[in-house]
Structures are given as structure tokens and as C-alpha cells.
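Progress note, sequence design subtask.
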């Protein structure tokens, strides 16, 4: 398969103003790419990317849940640069506080799924004809939550499992067109979404350390993910799993998921932590 030279390629990124999106944008920029950077806050985008050469960068506000907005940004990017070679569907949110399916409100569950699943769909749908024309690449941000237990994080985990399936199906559907698709599976990354599990919430922090011991409970810098993304997009990889310690978990998920679920079902400490964070979440809704 022909590798993708990123120099002068036009790359659209959603969720670009922080975390993984920001690190990946900076990495692509260093490779000589032209960027279409989107997020909810124009101020955050302008501040984050103020030092970039704006002849190579188009910045736009975008709520990925809104298909009309997404199509409008794509149309403006085409008007500006003439093409889109790579789309990185990266925008995502998590619950404001760790919660369970009993405690979460309908609105919050729906909001997370809207952004993390339908926002990805909107990005794919709006960019796909242009990616095919350019024989380019679409990369979708899933998560290790596509293959690990989503306790206390169900809407996020369900969405990430769903977008993994979208990415796999899309790659097969694109076979023979010259265009490709891939799925990114970040492990724990030092981003605002993960902060709650690393000191921001007592029960969640303890739960991660207990259920994911050793290196599996450690967060990495966004730059680690960005390096993997750049290499993966250049090679048109079907899967990018970073950090690499999670690769065996993905490859052996059928066996390991059944085993880990059975262990968690019997782990009284996990049960206590879940009940505790559930009570906190319910109490917060009642305030």
C-alpha cells in the first residue's frame, strides 16, 4: 500500500484545541501539512495555534453534533485549500463525573453519545467524498475502552466501541478506491477527560489503580499518542494502539474480556467503589 507523504497534505482535525488533537496538529504541522483545525472555542484555537503560519492553517469553530455546521466547515476548507487529504475525527467528551447507568441522567448519556459517536459519523460523512477523491485517509479516535470494561464510564465506552466498528467497516468499504481508514486506540493520556481518574475523583482514582495495576494504570503525555498517529497515518495503518503496552490486550480481547469481567464481578473492592461513586453522582443530581 502506498505510503502517505504528509508534506503539503490538507488535514482536518476535530477537537484540535487541546490534548491529543493539539499534539497531533503540532506534529502534522512540523511534517509540512496544511491544517484545518476545529473545536468549539475560536478563542482557544487562536490562542493555541497563534504562532503557526496562517497561510497553512484554517481555523474554524465547529460543533460536530451539527451536520450542517460540519458540512459548512468542510466546504470552506475545500474553498480555501482545494482538497482534504486526511480527516482526523477526534472530538470527544466524557461524563462530568464518574457515574453509573443508574445514576447518569438521560440528557448526559445522550450528550456523550451524540458527540463521541454521531460527531464522528458527521465528520466521516462530510469529508468522505473528498477523502476518496484525494485517495487519502480517515482516522477515528476510539479508545482502549473499545475493548476494556466500561464500568463507571458506560456512554463513553459504548461510543468508543461503536466508532471502532465504524472504522473497521469503513476501511473495508474503501478497499480498492485508493483511500483508507484507521482507528486510534489511546490508552490513558494526560488530558482533561482523564484527569478525573488521576486524582480528580477519589473513588475513580482508586478504581483505576485497582482494576488496571502497574503500567496499565499510568497516563502518558499527548505527544506519545501524536508520534504514533503520525507514523500510523503515514503508513495508512488500520489500527494505532498507543502506548504499545495495550496491544496484547486488544489482540487477546476475546479471552481477556471474559476473564477480567468475571474477576470484576467477584471483586468486593470494585463493588464498594462503584456504589460509592454512584451515591456521589446521584447526590450531585439532587443538589
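Output:
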Amino acid at each position: 500500500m502506498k505510503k502517505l507523504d504528509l508534506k503539503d497534505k490538507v488535514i482536518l482535525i476535530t477537537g484540535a484545541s487541546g490534548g491529543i488533537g493539539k499534539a497531533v496538529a503540532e506534529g502534522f504541522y512540523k511534517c509540512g501539512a496544511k491544517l484545518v483545525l476545529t473545536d468549539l472555542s475560536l478563542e482557544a484555537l487562536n490562542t493555541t495555534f497563534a504562532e503557526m503560519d496562517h497561510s497553512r492553517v484554517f481555523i474554524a469553530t465547529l460543533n460536530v453534533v451539527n451536520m450542517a455546521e460540519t458540512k459548512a466547515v468542510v466546504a470552506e476548507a475545500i474553498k480555501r485549500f482545494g482538497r482534504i487529504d486526511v480527516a482526523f475525527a477526534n472530538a470527544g467528551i466524557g461524563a462530568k463525573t464518574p457515574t453509573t447507568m443508574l445514576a447518569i441522567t438521560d440528557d448526559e448519556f445522550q450528550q456523550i453519545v451524540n458527540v463521541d459517536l454521531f460527531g464522528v459519523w458527521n465528520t466521516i460523512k462530510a469529508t468522505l467524498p473528498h477523502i476518496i477523491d484525494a485517495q487519502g485517509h480517515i482516522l477515528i479516535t476510539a479508545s482502549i475502552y473499545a475493548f476494556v470494561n466500561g464500568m463507571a464510564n458506560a456512554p463513553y465506552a459504548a461510543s468508543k466501541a461503536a466508532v471502532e466498528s465504524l472504522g473497521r467497516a469503513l476501511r473495508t468499504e474503501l478497499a480498492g478506491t485508493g483511500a483508507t481508514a484507521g482507528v486510534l486506540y489511546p490508552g490513558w493520556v494526560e488530558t482533561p477527560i482523564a484527569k478525573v481518574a488521576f486524582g480528580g475523583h477519589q473513588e475513580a482514582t482508586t478504581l483505576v489503580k485497582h482494576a488496571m495495576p502497574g503500567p496499565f494504570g499510568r497516563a502518558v503525555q499527548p505527544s506519545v499518542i501524536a508520534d504514533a498517529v503520525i507514523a500510523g497515518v503515514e503508513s495508512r495503518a488500520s489500527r494505532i494502539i498507543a502506548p504499545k503496552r495495550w496491544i496484547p490486550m486488544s489482540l487477546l480481547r476475546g479471552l481477556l474480556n471474559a476473564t477480567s469481567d468475571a474477576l470484576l464481578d467477584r471483586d468486593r473492592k470494585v463493588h464498594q467503589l462503584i456504589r460509592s461513586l454512584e451515591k456521589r453522582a446521584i447526590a450531585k443530581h439532587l443538589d
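The CA atoms of residues 12 and 87 lie 5 Å apart. Work on this subtask will continue into the next period as scheduled.
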